[in-house]
């Protein structure tokens, strides 16, 4: 349907928030890499080149390990600008870099010391573990990281339940502690000067404090403050349900349309399970709403929640918000239950919007009536696109027909991965600049 067009709204000039966030992280990493190199040079070089390389790879593995903790600390400033999906992806690839650096560190050190002794590499490793304080702890830490790396490989990750993978992944914190104690006990550079010692204590202190603050203290404080409870459970269709939640001082909860929470409903059988669900309505300071499709035991159990059930929510998370607007007008493209953050964004967006909702059949169009009424109230266009995946109903030609000026608009996209990949390809063909394309992948849930 076509409605009255609203006047365009000016967007904020200046550097994009995502660029600020990424630049901040890169600058922190680069500055610390330089500092590590300086302290390493000041400590002096061993006569054996293999030992030199071993020490250097060990130091950079320690630095990247601390950086990994920062990436998953869920600090609001970084999360709002970069997004948990991208931070989690960077954490994953940084983890593989740490793994290769640690393996290189172990090989260089063992073969370096073996060159200076009459021992073969295996006996040299045993000798180091028996005679050098902290080496045995380092071997255990490396073994843990090898196991975590194996279960994080794409082949294994797809075959593990998220809870199983997450439980194994938590042992990384044990490896971090063991690696740090090894560095304290055996690190030549660590003890080379008071400044180097203070620096490394500072690096690990900031990393661990960030994790503790972002993943423990802040969620506990917010939940104690807001005391969330279920107020209503409304079936939207046979396999989709909306849950309404209220609490105290929700006007002070820094949630925005397009974001999501990790929800724990404190029932006897589900209190331990956290699921990421987007807000399906813009926060109004009084109520939060999520809408979920049955896709597993956790989402299926939502239909049976009782009014008054206590809720523990971690968040809000995500960069899929109007903070990243670059153009006065927008296109909102939703697929299936991916309509939930799109529907919330439509409430908050200013300027003219075109909403494209892609489903297989009319019956699959969850929240369509709400979208229709909201589009009418806000002067937006709404297009319901139905049909099988093939032929592609959102191919470049179809998108250009529905939105002729799409290259001059911000595009917000949320839906199943195959549909999102296809639409992203269409947008590239239509010449939509990358900074105008906004999407988020919920990789946390696997």
UniProtKB/TrEMBL annotation:
Look up keyword Iron-sulfur and say if it applies: yes
Alphabetized UniProt keyword annotations: 2Fe-2S, FAD, Flavoprotein, Iron, Iron-sulfur, Membrane, Metal-binding, Oxidoreductase, Transmembrane, Transmembrane helix
GO MF term list: 2 iron, 2 sulfur cluster binding; flavin adenine dinucleotide binding; metal ion binding; oxidoreductase activity
Fetch the Pfam families from UniProt. Answer: Ferric_reduct, NAD_binding_1
Q: Where are the transmembrane segments?
A: 25-45, 51-72, 93-114, 134-156, 168-186, 198-218
Cofactor(s) recorded in Swiss-Prot or TrEMBL = FAD
Q: Where in the cell is it found?
A: Membrane
Residue span, FAD-binding FR-type domain = 223-323
What is the membrane topology noted in the UniProt record heading this document?
Multi-pass membrane protein
Q: Give the GO cellular component terms, alphabetically.
A: membrane
Protein name, per record:
Putative ferric reductase
- Provide the species name: Streptomyces luteogriseus
């Amino acid at each position: 349907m076509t409605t009255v067009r609203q006047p365009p709204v000016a967007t904020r000039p200046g550097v994009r928030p995502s660029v600020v966030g990424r630049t901040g992280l890169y600058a922190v990493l680069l500055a610390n890499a330089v500092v590590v190199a300086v302290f390493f040079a000041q400590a002096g070089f061993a006569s054996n080149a293999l030992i030199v390389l071993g020490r250097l790879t060990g130091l950079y593995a320690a630095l990247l390990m601390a950086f990994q903790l920062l990436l998953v600390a869920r600090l609001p400033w970084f999360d709002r600008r970069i997004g948990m999906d991208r931070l989690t992806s960077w954490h994953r690839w940084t983890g593989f870099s740490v793994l290769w650096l640690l393996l290189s560190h172990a090989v260089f050190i063992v073969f370096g010391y073996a060159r200076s002794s009459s021992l073969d590499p295996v006996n040299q490793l045993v000798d180091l573990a028996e005679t050098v304080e902290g080496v045995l702890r380092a071997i255990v830490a490396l073994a843990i990281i090898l196991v975590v790396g194996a279960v994080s490989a794409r082949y294994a990750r797809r075959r593990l339940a998220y809870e199983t993978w997450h439980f194994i992944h938590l042992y990384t914190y044990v490896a971090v502690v063991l690696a740090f104690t090894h560095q304290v006990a055996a690190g030549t550079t660590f003890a080379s000067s008071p400044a180097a010692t203070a620096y490394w204590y500072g690096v690990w202190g900031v990393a661990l404090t960030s994790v503790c603050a972002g993943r423990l203290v802040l969620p506990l404080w917010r939940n104690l403050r807001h005391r969330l409870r279920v107020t209503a459970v409304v079936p939207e269709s046979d396999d989709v349900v909306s849950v309404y939640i209220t609490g105290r001082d929700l006007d002070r909860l820094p949630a925005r349309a397009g974001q999501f929470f990790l929800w724990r409903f404190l029932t006897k059988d589900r209190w331990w399970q956290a699921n990421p669900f987007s807000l399906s309505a813009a926060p109004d300071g009084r109520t939060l709403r999520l809408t979920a499709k049955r896709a597993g035991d956790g989402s299926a159990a939502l239909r049976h929640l009782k009014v008054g059930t206590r809720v523990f929510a971690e968040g809000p998370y995500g960069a899929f918000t109007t903070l990243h607007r670059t153009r006065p007008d927008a296109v909102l493209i939703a697929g299936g239950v991916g309509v939930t953050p799109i529907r919330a964004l439509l409430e908050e967006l200013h300027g003219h919007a075109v909403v494209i909702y892609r489903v297989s059949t009319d019956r699959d169009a969850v929240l369509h009536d709400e979208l229709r009424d909201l589009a009418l109230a806000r002067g937006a266009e709404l297009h319901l696109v139905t049909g099988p995946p093939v032929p592609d109903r959102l191919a470049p030609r179809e998108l250009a027909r529905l939105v002729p000026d799409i290259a001059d608009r911000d595009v917000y996209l949320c839906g199943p991965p195959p549909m999102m990949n296809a639409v992203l390809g269409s947008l590239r063909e239509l010449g939509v600049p990358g900074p105008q394309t906004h999407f988020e992948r919920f990789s946390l849930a696997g």
